[in-house]
Amino acid sequence: MKRISTALLLGGLALVAVAGCGGESHSSPKPAGGTAAASGAAAAQTFTVHGNDRDQFQPGTIEAKVGTLTLTLQNGGVPHNLTFKDKALPTIGAVSGAATRSARLVFDKAGTYVFECTIHPGMEGKIVVTP
Predict the structure, then answer these.
(1) At 9, is the secondary structure helix, strand, or coil?
(2) Domain edges within the chain
(3) Is 88 left (phi over 0), alpha (psi -120 to 50) or beta?
(4) N or C: which terminus of the chain has fewer CB atoms within 10 Å of its end residue's CB?
C-alpha cells in the first residue's frame, strides 16, 4: 500500500512539473514597461518600438512632442502589428521575424494615444504627446 501511495504522489508531482513547463504563453500578455523619448525636432521626430516574444511593446510608453513622428515597429520573432485606438492614426501592419515597418504620425494636440497589437489581446503601449 505504501508503494502505491508513493508512486501516485511522485506521478502527481511529475504531472505538476510538466504542466508548469512549456515556455511563454501568448494568451496572457505581460504589461510593457519603461519610458523613452522620441528623438529629433518636433517636425521630424523618430522612434523605434520593439515587439518582443513575451507579447510586450518595449518601451511601453513613448514620449513625443506635438508635431510629426515616424514610428517604427521592430519585431523580435513572433508576428506583431500596431494599431491605435484613435482610428484617425495610421496602423503598422503585421511584422514577422526581425523585420521592421514604419508609419508617419501627425499629432496636432497634446494627449495620450494608446496603441495595441491586435494579434495578441492585451498587448498595449502608449504615446504621451506634450506641447
Answers:
(1) helix
(2) 30-130
(3) alpha
(4) N
102-115: per-residue pLDDT in tens? 999 999 999 999 99
The region that residue 77 occupies, defined by phi over 0 for left and psi between -120 and 50 for alpha, beta otherwise, is: left
| β partners of residue 40 | none
Q: Which three cell numbers stand for residue 66?
A: 506635438
Tell me the pLDDT tens digit for each residue of 7-48.
433 343 333 333 333 333 344 445 567 999 999 999 999 999
Question: What is the Rg, in whole angstroms, of the alpha carbon atoms belonging to the chain?
Answer: 21
Residue entry with cell 513613448: 62
- Cβ(70)–Cβ(77) below 8 Å: no
The top-level CATH class assigned to 30-130 is mainly beta
Residue 126's beta-bridge partner residues? 61, 114
